[in-house]
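ok trying this again, last paste got cut off
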Amino acid sequence: MKALQTVNLNKSFGELQAVKDLNLEVNPGEIFGFLGPNGAGKSTTLKMVTGLLKPCSGDVFVFGRCPVENNVEVKFNIGVVAEELQMYDRLTGAEFVEFSARMYGIDQSVYEQRMNRYFSLLDLEARKDSFIMDYSTGMKKKLSLIVALVHGPKLLLLDEPFTGMDALSVIRVKELLNELKSEGVAIIFSSHILEIVEKVCDRIGIIQDGALKAVGRYDQLLEDHGFSTLDMFFTKDKTE
């Protein structure tokens, strides 16, 4: 069963068609890069995957379930790290993770084990009892990843997950993503840092003007289109 499948997916806002007949598949245990310029339709697509937006036509399936018809069940299977973080600054990091885990009904022994593991792995253990207002941008991003993982999702949606992180933190997050992949978690990864996408993702999908323009392995995409780098997908029209 596919972790994510969209079938002829469409979404319009008035006269603006933000997503056009999108057919996309992501497998369990795969890191899928979802790339496109601002306004290409990435965020709209992901909001339909989580059930925050209802498609105008077409279908979305998360492990065979429709987010609109099975909203709660689908949300239990999804973890999200958004580009713009929304947090309770007057909670400590540990309190915020606990709050999120309790919202999902996770047993205390389970979420404490996961929380301690992820805080240690991402080098946040010394700051877990500090208020979030005192966290740096990179620390908040790592905390948001812990929150996204505490309920054990099968599909992880990452929007610019490395914002504000130092080099060591990026390495540790990449190690964690590969570990999750080996456990069968499907990961959809959106980033403007193309070099990281090239190294991390198994396959890449490129969306422009709401339509999927290309999908495949990194080397396959370059070979099929005669490009030397991913940048050329976004600059070729400007240089012609």
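PB: full thing came through this time. The chain has a mean pLDDT of 91.
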